[in-house]
Design brief:
Strand content of chain A: 5-15%
Radius of gyration of chain B: 26 Å
Largest sheet of chain B: 6 strands, mixed
CATH class of the largest domain in chain B: Alpha Beta
Number of domains of chain B: 3
Helix content of chain A: 40-55%
Largest sheet of chain A: 4 strands, antiparallel
Oligomer: heterodimer
Number of helices of chain B: 14
Largest interface: A-B, 17 and 19 residues
Structural class of chain B: alpha+beta
Helix content of chain B: 25-40%
Number of helices of chain A: 19
Shape of chain A: extended
Structural class of chain A: alpha+beta
Number of strands of chain B: 28
Shape of chain B: globular
CATH superfamily of the largest domain in chain B: ATPase, nucleotide binding domain
CATH architecture of the largest domain in chain B: 2-Layer Sandwich
Order of helices and strands of chain A: HHHEEHHHHHHHHEEHHHHHHHEEEEH
Distance between the termini of chain B: 43 Å
Number of strands of chain A: 8
Radius of gyration of chain A: 27 Å
């Protein structure tokens, strides 16, 4: 196997310059330039290349653990796979802290995800959220946030008539044609140097009904892979695509013949899509017992709003939790608020799709999702019937219907792991599970006490019987 | 056997030895650790080095020389008392004196030394320095860049703390700027830049020009003796300005007294180009190191000119950093050179210094951008490459059926080879090659000793190697041999004798700088002293020596 500069330094690929320098300093002390010119030169070249690598890659926030070297070649070039972490089923983390109470609640808006806000969702900034949800502004009924970027993207979409091209579901007989059409659209985006690394546009693309319905097509994704390879994406661009694609993409960073003497590193990147089958139900499966009339109506509705149908339908878990979470909450808000959804909102079938579909189902017991859903409901006045429908579709997850404080006709759902209330001042009060309400605690302790008592009595009785 | 570090400066030189974890400055025969880099031929043909020679620059300008470091590697000569000397020869005389002083001080032979050179010294100047060392009988395995040495001295004193340092070495004749990075005891020189024609001497020049203009004197018409007096007064004024806000320059010329008052503010306004000349190398070094000003942790100032408050203030302004005062600007470089010698000897473990090549090395190729038949520089080893560096580049044939290649090796940053320094050439035959297909590989290796080796490798595996070692392309080997015999024949003044000669030189210098009535006094005392010397009467000599030196002390301060 050909030695590459990471081997010379004796460390795995890293973006941490401290680690590189540490490795270098230890090697240099062993191979002093005074005594061992040849060895020193080699170490120094590897060091310069590694530092350069780190400088160029560090802006992308890739963890060292995510990088794996593959495809070492004779000329010293190699490939680095950047694995995306699957946070989705990771341990829930508290979204809010006690600081919450000091901050006055914000004006609820369509882009406010029930106050699961920006800074508190892991590592997300307001800007990122805008960026990630920007594509939703392209669905009817949503106000368009006015920024230079969205204007540019909107213009691109209009110029290329993308809404029309992407909005219909693909019927089985037209799969082949759809694949070539969709690849054409991908090519259009990849050809535009300004927009090829735009997350919003790729979200719009991947989450469109048409591309969404090609989710299971290996042919489509392998061809798309080829396209990204030819497009010579920068590492950042490739990463943008990989981050929003709901499959399990990996970014491959190819280091092409590193020029060690000058410490120069050339990168070439592409995206590999990995298809993973999983246990979450597909649309047909989910709807097979439902009334065909209702199903038809639901499909029409989803097509009309052109909204993330794919995310709900696709039997693939969105690989990055923060995106999945934002999708889920944005759709929830949209359904609750948009006038377009007035009618369908009351149908259990919609809620079945929402809660049982592939988007929400995998994270149905996620703490962050619970908090978000509760908060979204707290901002609205929902009838008891609607809340009941929802609760039924949530499934086994322990949740309770509660009445909103000071409003007899307004209800919401809380989940067993947390209690969220809106107090008189409109502030959210968040009580983590374990210190819920005193009576629950009392109830639990009484129950435990009674149990212990019964056990003691039972044990006493058996002992007595033996005697 | 002792290994010493020598700072061979433009104006002053000194030697330091590093032993038992401490650097020790070596005192010369006069009990001072600084030896002025000046050479003078006494009336009896003996050679005076140092303090006496410096004084004689004024009284006997035609027999004395200084600042020859600025001409190292250039084909220039100075005529002293009828004999012409090259800069190499003059430097070797200084080194010879330092070597003798070291041996006397340490009581053991000194044969090896590390000599510091300005980082911006080009290849010819470096080779000239090696030749000078060779002529003086010192074995110099390594030259160290002055800012690297300064950084070493600073770090050795302060415990090799991790960080990025900007070292500004502003000496009498040269300015060197380097960016040094320290991590885990590895001292990495990231970039150097500088100007080997800018130094404290330029301030003197500016003051002299101002003095002449304001007093209506024509600088060109002054005799060399008069010039020397004015320059010395200017230097003294400059040094005094570091202590007091305003100085009065008084110069006796042609029985008249000329005056100039000078403040730091005025000094700044008359020496604007010098300050501007400091700014550029600083900017370039930081840029080359891929750092920003914010990335610099501290700034180390060395070199005599950095003692000037105006220079410090200017550097503080352009960098926004407060210079650290913990090294002695006069001795840091020699100390660093001595530490480096210890490092090489493995007396200092686990500290490694990696230096860089301060200039680009390359060959001249046909200009295929303009295609006008002109030549352009194709760089092979880019500047600031870590040493040792070895890089191979392929080159194509310039015409059809080309069978011969001539490689001209240059050093410098200009795209036009003729504006760079020509180092030499290699010629070789090669198999007939079609236009624009590969004709040969050129491999350049520049090692830590500053030796450049160029290999030309033809496509059929034929290799022609040329080492650009000490065979200077300015001086032929016969010339060097000639110099060697000349230097061996030259006699330095013996240490016992030196003390007297220093006093005489000083008396003669003070005479030049004084007014009529004082001159009378000096002449009288001097004549008595000389007469006693001739008579070889030790008691009388001692007596008149004291009288004369007391008088000079009184007159000077």
């Amino acid at each position: 196997m050909k030695e590459i500069f990471w081997d010379t330094l004796g460390i795995p690929p890293t973006t941490d310059t401290k680690k590189i320098r540490k490795a270098y300093s230890e090697l240099v002390k062993k191979h002093n330039p005074e005594d061992d010119e040849e060895a020193f030169r080699k170490i120094n070249q590897a060091y310069r290349a590694a530092m350069n690598f780190a400088r160029q890659i560090s802006a992308l926030n890739i963890n060292d653990e995510q990088m794996v070297i593959t495809n070492r070649r004779e000329d010293g070039s190699f490939q680095i796979h950047v694995k995306k972490e699957n946070e989705l089923l990771g341990a829930p983390s508290p979204v809010m802290t006690s600081e919450e109470e000091e901050n006055p609640a914000k004006e609820p808006s369509l882009f406010d995800f029930g106050d699961i806000d920006s800074s508190r969702v892991k590592g997300l900034t307001v800007q990122e959220i805008d960026e990630m949800t920007g594509y939703l502004s392209l669905a009817p009924g949503f106000p368009v946030p006015d920024s230079e970027k969205t204007r540019r993207i909107k213009k691109f979409i209009d110029d290329n008539d993308l809404i029309k091209r992407l909005s219909n579901l693909v019927k089985p007989e037209e799969t082949e044609e759809a694949i070539s059409n969709m690849l054409e659209v991908a090519k259009l985006i990849l050809d535009d140097e300004d927009l090829m690394g735009e997350r919003v546009l790729w979200q719009f693309y991947f989450f469109s009904p048409r591309v969404g319905s090609l989710a299971k097509s290996l042919e489509f994704y392998s061809k798309l892979e080829k396209l990204t390879d030819d497009a010579r994406l920068s590492v950042a661009d490739a990463y943008a695509i990989a981050e929003v694609c709901p499959l399990h993409p990996r970014v491959n960073v190819n280091v092409i013949k590193p020029n060690l003497t000058e410490g120069r590193i050339d990168f070439r990147t592409n995206v590999t899509f990995i298809y993973k089958e999983n246990k979450y139900p597909a649309f047909d499966e989910l709807m097979k017992d439902e009334n065909p009339e209702d199903v038809k109506e639901l499909i029409e509705f989803l097509q009309k709003i052109r909204l993330n149908l794919h995310a709900m339908l696709m039997p693939v878990v969105h690989p990055v939790k923060k995106y999945a979470l934002l999708d889920a909450l944005t759709i929830f808000n949209f359904i609750l608020r948009s006038p377009e959804c007035e009618k369908i909102r009351q149908k259990p079938i919609l809620w079945k799709l929402y809660f049982q579909g592939a988007l929400i189902k995998p994270m149905i017991s996620d703490h962050d999702l619970h908090v978000g859903l509760t908060k979204a409901m707290l901002d609205m006045d929902l009838s008891k019937d609607l809340v009941k429908i929802m609760k039924k579709q949530i499934g086994k997850e322990t949740c309770f219907i509660r009445q909103k404080m000071g409003n007899n006709n307004s209800y919401f759902i809380t989940f067993r792991d947390s209690e969220i209330r809106k107090d008189k001042n409109g502030k959210y009060v968040y009580i983590p599970y374990g210190q819920v309400t005193p009576w629950v605690q009392n109830f639990v302790s009484i129950a435990v006490f009674v149990l212990v008592l019964i056990m003691a009595i039972l044990m006493g009785m058996t002992l007595m019987q033996k005697n | 056997m002792a290994k010493i570090g020598i700072d061979l400066g433009t104006t002053n030189s000194l030697a330091v030895i590093y032993k038992e974890g401490k650097s020790e400055r070596i005192l010369n025969s006069l009990g001072s650790y600084i030896t002025p880099s000046a050479v003078s031929i006494d009336d009896d043909g003996q050679i005076l080095i140092g303090e006496a020679a410096k004084d004689r620059l004024i009284s006997h300008p035609d027999n004395s020389a200084s600042e020859f470091k600025r001409n190292m590697g250039l084909r220039t000569t100075v005529v002293l008392a009828g004999t012409s000397y090259t800069p190499e020869e003059l430097s070797s005389l200084i080194l010879k004196k330092i070597k003798a002083d070291c041996e006397a001080y340490l009581g053991e032979p000194v044969e090896e030394a590390i000599i510091s050179v300005p980082a911006y010294f080009d290849d010819n100047s470096r080779r000239a320095t090696r030749i000078a060392a060779d002529l003086s009988g010192l074995k110099v395995e390594r030259l160290i860049n002055e800012p690297s040495a300064a950084a070493l001295a600073y770090l050795n004193k302060n415990g090799y703390k991790d960080g990025t340092y900007l070292v500004i070495d502003f000496g009498g004749g040269t300015l060197d700027v380097s960016v040094v990075d320290v991590f885990d005891n590895i001292i990495e020189i990231l970039a150097v830049s500088g100007n080997n024609r800018l130094g404290g001497k330029d301030f003197n020049e500016a003051i002299v020009q101002d003095f002449c203009t304001k007093n209506g004197l024509d600088h060109e018409k002054l005799s060399s003796a008069e010039k020397a007096v004015v320059y010395r007064a200017a230097e003294r004024a400059k040094i005094e300005l570091s202590e007091i806000p305003m100085v009065m320059m008084e110069v006796p010329l042609d029985k008249k007294k000329y005056m100039l008052t000078l403040t730091n503010q005025e000094l700044i306004s008359i020496s604007r180009p010098i300050f501007e000349g400091i700014r550029d190398p600083v900017r370039k070094a930081i840029h080359d190191s891929r750092k920003t000003l914010e990335g610099i942790d501290s700034i180390i100032l060395v070199g005599g000119s950095c003692k000037m408050p105006t220079v410090r203030e200017f550097i503080r302004q352009i960098t926004g950093l407060e210079p650290v005062p913990s090294v002695n600007p006069d001795t840091a470089i020699a100390e660093g050179a001595a530490i480096y010698a210890a490092m090489k000897n493995k007396d200092l473990k686990d500290v490694v210094l990696t230096d860089i090549c301060p200039f680009t090395l390359g060959i001249a190729v046909n200009n295929d951008i303009l295609k006008d038949g002109s030549m352009m520089m194709s760089s092979i080893i880019p500047r600031n490459s870590t040493l040792p560096s070895s890089i191979t580049k392929p080159y194509n044939a310039a015409s059809n059926n080309q069978v011969r290649v001539k490689l001209h090796v240059y050093q410098g940053e200009n795209i036009h080879p003729e504006k760079n320094l020509y180092l030499g050439s290699i010629e070789m035959d090669c198999p007939p090659t079609r236009l624009n297909s590969k004709i040969c590989d050129v491999k350049m290796t520049y090692d830590i000793n500053g030796i450049l080796i160029v290999d030309a490798i033809t496509t059929d595996g034929n290799v022609v190697t040329k080492a650009f070692r000490s065979n200077s392309n300015v001086l032929s080997s016969e010339e060097i041999e000639k110099m060697r015999s000349k230097m061996e024949a030259s006699i330095l003044v013996s240490p016992e004798d030196e003390k007297y000669r220093v006093l005489i030189a000083r008396a003669e210098r003070v005479y030049e700088e004084s007014f009529a009535e004082q001159r009378m006094l000096i002449t009288n005392f001097l004549m008595v002293f000389r007469a006693n010397l001739e008579r070889r009467d030790p008691i009388k000599v001692k007596e008149s020596y004291k009288q004369l030196s007391d008088l000079l002390d009184k007159l000077e301060y």
